Batch of 2 targets.
Target 1
Amino acid sequence: MINSVRFNNKLQKEFAMTLKQRVDDYFKTNNRSKFGGSRIILKAILLTTMYLGAYALILTNQFNVYIMWAFTGVMGIGAAGIGMAFMHDANHESFSANKGLNKFFSFSLELLGGSSMNWRIQHNVLHHTYTNIEELDEDVSSRALYRFTKGAKHYKMHRFQHIYMFFLYTLMTYSWIVVADFFQLHRYYKAGLLGPNRSFGKELARLIVGKMFYYSYMVVLPLILVDITWWQLIIGFSTVHFILGFILAVTFQLAHLVEKTDFPDPIDDQIDENWYVHQLATTADFAQHNKILTWYIGGLNYQVEHHLFPHISHVHYPALSKIVKETTDEFKVRYNVYKNIPEALASHVRMLVRLGKAPVSA
């Protein structure tokens, strides 16, 4: 049972209290809000304009198919930016102090074909609470095609997962828009994760309406207004999702499925660590000094800070990282950081290779 797994927060208690106090003091001393403010609103406008602007240019039917195909690439890049740079904050309610604005911008996931309600359960509840714990954190749960934890069943094909996984990453959001959201909703309903005021029927209806909206503007309108064939539409549509899925998947994997992170197993339904220390052990930062990357991916290269303080907007993560570094050094707690993307990517590939090997029998 998910709710039966507990962390031993009596351990490393002084570290956790000191870290939280120092972060609170930072905001009080500098008289700053923990929300995104005007910086994140501007980002939301720019990235949404990038995505919808490229889409609108396609609908004008004034360009040849190659230029329109290039526009679908722009849409994919813009869609990934939307998902990471402000949808993520909005669903964590760190976008704005205004709950209505958070709710409004959280629906940007529906604009991309996903389900914001499913995402909040999978990400906010499961991933953030039980980070890197097999069968509880769905983001690292293994499947027949891939093996992400040492306790998962091994198949011979896994020897090659470090090669084919990067193709599978491109299919990640395809699964959302076709079947995954429906299976996920049913699974969360059976597990009692929908909440007391949500019925399966009502949430299923909302999910169907969201999918109808998405397919109406992404499939039906282009077929009606643009001089393209059905197979050209599929190529363009797939290009958007290949780029979107690849960027999202790789960003996540560089923060969690790397050599420096742990994958703890509960013993008697308990993780013998403070929750804050668990987050530090199972998460990694990368390319902290790359300001363009930080802007585009919504500070998710500061994944440690995000996991420690998910209700604080990502615009503050670079400043918070200095506090985290100071406090972890003082208390001798591990703080995982990769200097740049190539270093983190190489570690991820080595991790896939290691997990792809057959376990040695005892």
Note: The chain has a mean pLDDT of 94.
Target 2
Amino acid sequence: MTQSRNVLKRISSILVPHKTVPRTWWTGNGRWDLSIPRVGILTFGLAVFGIGEALLIQSNIGNSPWTVFAQGISLHTPLDIGQSTFLISAGVLSMWIPLGERPGFGTIANMVVLALFLQLGVDYIPLVRNDFLLSLVMVLVGIGLVGIASALYITCGLGPGPRDGLMTAIHKKTRIRVGRVRLCIELVALTSGILLGGRSGLGTALFAVLIGNSVAIGFSLVHQFASQSQ
């Protein structure tokens, strides 16, 4: 009984959301401070991020806001959802120019690797039909993967993704709170995607509610891993 309590206590301590972005042994000192381990962790994180997003899509009960937008574009163009995601990232990145934001290696990798693995996930993970429980499990697993993946690529310190960079750049220029800026950006993407026919629903709502804590727990897990692997 005592042993079980100790195990549960250990698990709960690991899953406590981290309050800051932890610095790890693989964190770079600049956006182009490249090394094989750092680039490997970045690539792995972005690949997992893409698979997590693909799980939400294939759950068939609602995508994350930006993927609703990408899916909407794919319905009206010859592009698949991965190519649409890359196109959106490139468009968002172009908005950095007047805002004075500078991309890093991680920014470019985010555009390419995430879109590639999102499409691979969509191609090979079966679309769920008429199985709500399985859909719900896929959404929750997808959100968990996106959280851990975000923690991995962010702690590399090689530059934010296009959407994160746009958020911080607008915040710096306008002094509007980061949360409000991100909310407005997400709402624009989501509304545009819905108007184009992208799928939104329970999965979208769960993503919006849970993704913040998922990333924070991801930071906690990454911090624990980094501490033990030094």
Note: The chain has one domain: 25-228.
